[in-house]
Amino acid sequence: MVKPLPFEEPVIKLKEKIEELKNITDDAHVDMADEIRSLEERLQKLEADVYGNMAAWDRVQVARHPERPTTLDYIGYLFEDFIELHGDRAYGDDAAIVGGIASFGGTPVTVIGHQRGKDTKENIRRNFGMPHPEGYRKALRLMKQAEKFGRPIICFIDTKGAYPGKAAEERGQSEAIARNLVEMAGLRVPVISIVIGEGGSGGALGLGVANHIHMLENSTYSVISPEGAASILWKDAALAQQAAEAMKITAADLKEMEIIDEIVPEVMGGAHRDAAGQADAIGKAIRSSMDTLCTMDADQVIEDRYRKFRNIGVYKEGED
């Protein structure tokens, strides 16, 4: 059973009431069809209200849900003949980033994404989705390979941030991310990035210099976590909810600021409630982007990406 989040409590209680009435109908042979129908109609309205008016902190909680689909989940639904490739050819393999070659609707592509675990054991192996430098170098190796063979690149972003530990810094964490930013800016093939969970800081940007950036409706994209921002601004991580509102980290906020290109709608209650249905929505977004980008030549692809990032943060004065 999917673990409910705090803001979902009214919906859960009403669902339990409906289930209770259905059990009474079955066990006691009492006709309660009208009552059940009335509650189900009420449930539909309540779900539309709860899930349609989620605060930023509510979306943070959904983005972090332990059962939220991961990169490998979506790869299984969206791509055929996926072959995972390993290693950065310099130090080792980082399980926090997965990547390889696959087919998307008959088109050869390279797929890369952050990968977190579904349980404690896998989270430890994947370092909770926080890559080391070798993870970003592996990603870059696969991107350059894709460029060589003319394959579009599809990236899935889902990380709290790059791993900040001593070992990562010793092996050149900041240089590895910076190298990805520079190299991705000049790739001669289309790059499409989808934020499927948390898009945290430079750890997300290492896969985020794309022609098109999409975000799932309940994902987040920010320079720092709400807890981290609250600790810096107010010396109190408990004010994370307030920070989440102020930081403008939701898909709607980022779409309004023209930082992302498209919001991918989520199934009712969040992607974790229907991974297959969510994958279908993501697939439509990817197909739309590929239909646009794959008609461009290499120079146009680079120019398109350049204009996208040059336009972010442009200040426009209002009329007097």
UniProtKB/TrEMBL annotation:
All copies of domain CoA carboxyltransferase C-terminal, residue ranges: 38-292
Pfam annotation, one family: ACCA
Broad class of where this protein is predominantly found: cytoplasm
GO CC entries: acetyl-CoA carboxylase complex
Pathway field: Lipid metabolism; malonyl-CoA biosynthesis; malonyl-CoA from acetyl-CoA: step 1/1
UniProt organism field: Bhargavaea cecembensis DSE10
Class of enzymatic activity (EC top level): transferase
Compartments (UniProt record): Cytoplasm
Cited SUPFAM superfamilies: ClpP/crotonase
One Gene Ontology biological process: fatty acid biosynthetic process
Gene Ontology molecular function: acetyl-CoA carboxylase activity; ATP binding; carboxyl- or carbamoyltransferase activity
Protein name: Acetyl-coenzyme A carboxylase carboxyl transferase subunit alpha
Catalytic reactions of this protein: N(6)-carboxybiotinyl-L-lysyl-[protein] + acetyl-CoA = N(6)-biotinyl-L-lysyl-[protein] + malonyl-CoA
